[in-house]
Design goal:
With about 190 residues, the protein is α+β, with helices and mostly antiparallel strands. It has 4 helices and 8 strands; from the N terminus they run βααβββαβαβββ. The chain has an 8-stranded mixed beta sheet with strand order 6-7-5-4-3-2-1-8, sandwiched between helices. A hairpin with a 2-residue loop joins β2 and β3.
Length: about 190
């Protein structure tokens, strides 16, 4: 199962809409945006799945279809930090795809000069916690009532990986990351 990670394009709108319809648990990842219509998914790609100096969103492509996302946002070179996030369509889950993809983007981030990568997940999302650990992210603590979805607040467990941390064990899942995309270094 070869995996290609590359920037999102407008032609991925059908895949994004399909993922949103298949995974009821993905709503928070999309900020409550209804992506059931392909036109809405196209707009979401243009507005939120950016690939620029401050935010890099990689589509996770398997067999020619975008099935997920790994993002490095809030990229900041003064302190050498970024915020990491990820999601997968239900059809791609349970095979190590998210962990392998997150580990691959993390390696890229360290190569371009970042030192600390952070992420967080709702404490009621153990699958996301397993992904973080498998990609080499250590648990740092819990932020109480950090996220609000509708009227409900959620505690968030935070994780981080440093450039000096040991690399996670190599995974059987091979991930190709488009590296021909320049990363602008800031001082």
């Amino acid at each position: 199962m070869p995996i290609l990670m590359r920037p999102w394009t407008p032609s991925d709108a059908d895949d994004l809409s399909r993922a949103a319809r298949a995974g009821n648990d993905l709503g928070p990842q999309f900020g409550g945006t209804d992506l059931t219509r392909v036109s809405a998914a196209q707009g979401f790609i243009e507005r939120h799945l950016r690939f620029d100096d401050a935010a890099k969103n990689w589509a996770i492509e398997i067999d020619g279809r975008a099935v997920g996302n790994v993002a490095a946002t809030g990229i900041e070179f003064r302190h050498q930090t970024a915020w990491m996030s990820y999601w997968l369509a239900p059809s791609a889950r349970g095979r190590g795809v998210a962990a392998a993809s997150l580990a691959r983007v993390s390696d890229w981030a360290f190569r371009i000069g970042l030192h600390r990568l952070e992420l967080g997940h709702r404490v009621n999302n153990p699958a996301s916690c397993r992904v973080a650990h498998a990609a080499g992210y250590l648990t740092e603590g819990v932020e109480r009532d950090k996220l609000r979805y509708g009227d409900e607040r959620h505690d968030v467990e935070t994780h981080a990986r440093l450039a000096t941390d040991p690399r996670p064990p190599e995974r059987e899942t091979a991930v190709a990351l488009r590296t021909d995309i320049p990363a602008r270094r800031q001082t």
